[in-house]
Design a protein that fits this description.
heterodimer, A: about 90 residues, mainly beta, three-stranded antiparallel sheet, about 0% helix, elongated, B: about 325 residues, alpha+beta, four-stranded parallel sheet, 9 helices, about 25% strand, globular
Chain lengths: ~90, ~325
């Protein structure tokens, strides 16, 4: 059912909890840049600050707490959160 | 040698999946990695068949047969040993355009539906089980039933009830879903944090809100369960920090043993939801009690493996390599 919204308040009222939202600012930028999948290994190629291309390695290449811990800014600014999209598509 | 492949459904830039795939490569387990939300309908090609006719390789009752081809790799759908559902992109919904919405639904229920109904396949974990377990109210109910200790919790849109609850004991507020939000273009979120009764106002009536009695904790625990193996780390944050995720740069980690009683409860919790993996968060009090806070059914773990020395990659590879044989 469509109703005219002309002259009415169309902005959703702000829930109380939303006022607690704040920038995360809990990580540091990753020195690793993604450079595509290696078709032979099916793993990503990661380029470090020195320009060298390596696979991900625990604690070394883009896997430490600074590069993809849960709920932190990672890689290209996306959050690597503790949950995927499953509950938003069920 | 067992030539049955492991499917890994995840986005390209998933370094955590890289670790698991590298381990599977070392074990010479065939892997087909793809991102259903981005790689379909191109370049991935699906041919899936079921029915009593002569096209099935197996007799009726044998389940889905056919092939999934991505690039140079092809998986026999009747012989997938395990599916690792890590961080697949969502199926694009389009912006109201009917053709795009149609394609998204057909892809999600066609490709996603076949991937969720593979015969004899071990799921880590099944996407629909993950989706169900993402709901905190269901988690708190299951945790209570399996014998875990749960803090008093109120979910309400009634400001008066919220105010009374916050006045009754030290209380925290946390959102029911940690979505990707922004404040002025910067990634943002809401940490679990204390709330005083005086802070409550009519804004509570504009959505559901979760309030919980604050546990007087001395540390946190993240317990990562893979199959029937439990890996636990004690996480110590600076004094006064309620939500350790807010202080990543200042945490210390120590591997600890999960008490037997808790371990049994965690396995019952996962069985209740049909999960093969769970990343559980607990608050630990001075008496050593573990208070259940939440379960992340597809939570992060690779940083913890490195920080606390927990061999989670191997455990996940073990489960995927073994497939359903040991678990059916």
């Amino acid at each position: 059912m469509q109703t005219s919204l002309a002259g009415t308040e169309t902005t959703a009222p702000t829930p109380w909890g939303l006022r607690r939202m704040a920038p995360l600012r809990n990580g540091s930028p990753s020195p690793w840049r993604y450079a595509g999948l290696d078709p032979a290994t099916q793993t990503g190629r990661w380029i470090g600050e020195d320009g060298a291309m390596t696979p991900a390695e625990l604690g070394k290449h883009g896997t430490s707490v600074n590069t993809y811990p849960p709920t932190q800014v990672s890689k290209d600014g996306k959050q690597d959160s503790d949950s995927g999209h499953d509950a938003t598509q069920d | 040698m067992d030539g049955r492949p492991v499917l890994v459904c995840t986005e390209f830039e998933d370094a955590t999946a890289d670790l698991v795939i590298a381990e599977l490569n070392r074990r010479r387990v065939p892997v087909l990695r793809f991102d259903p939300g981005r790689d379909f309908p191109a370049p991935a090609v699906l041919n899936a068949r079921i029915g009593a006719g002569g096209t099935s390789r197996t007799k009726s009752g044998g389940g889905w047969t056919g092939r999934l081809t991505v690039g140079e790799r092809t998986a026999d759908l009747s012989a997938v040993r395990a599916l690792y559902h890590r961080r697949p992109s969502p199926y694009p919904t389009g912006t109201g355009e009917q053709a795009a919405r149609f394609a998204a639904q057909e892809n999600r229920r066609g490709l996603g539906g076949v991937l969720g109904a593979l015969p004899g396949c071990l799921y880590l974990s099944h996407p629909q089980a993950i989706a169900r377990a993402e709901y905190k109210p269901a988690q708190l109910d299951a945790a209570t039933r399996v014998g875990l200790t749960v803090p008093d919790t109120l979910i309400t849109n009634d400001p008066m009830e919220a105010k009374a609850f916050c006045a009754a004991q030290p209380t925290i507020y946390k959102p029911l879903h940690a979505g990707a939000y922004e404040v002025e273009g910067e990634p943002a979120g809401i940490w679990a944090a204390p709330v005083e009764a005086g802070e409550i106002d009519g804004g509570v009536s504009h959505s559901a809100h979760l309030f919980q009695a604050q546990v007087p904790k001395v540390a946190d625990v993240r317990a990562v369960v893979v199959g029937e193996q439990v890996f636990s780390a004690r996480i110590t944050a600076p004094p006064g920090v309620v939500d350790w995720r807010a202080e990543y740069q200042n945490l210390t980690y120590e591997p600890i043993t999960c008490p037997d009683g808790i371990r049994g409860a965690l396995l019952r919790f996962l069985a209740d939801f049909g999960l093969n993996f769970g990343a559980f968060d607990f608050a630990v009090t001075t008496d050593g009690a573990w208070w259940f806070l939440e379960c992340n059914p597809n939570g992060q773990w690779a940083w913890l493996e490195d920080a606390a020395g927990l061999p989670i990659t191997h455990a996940i590879a073990d489960l995927l390599e073994d497939g359903a044989s040991q678990h059916e």
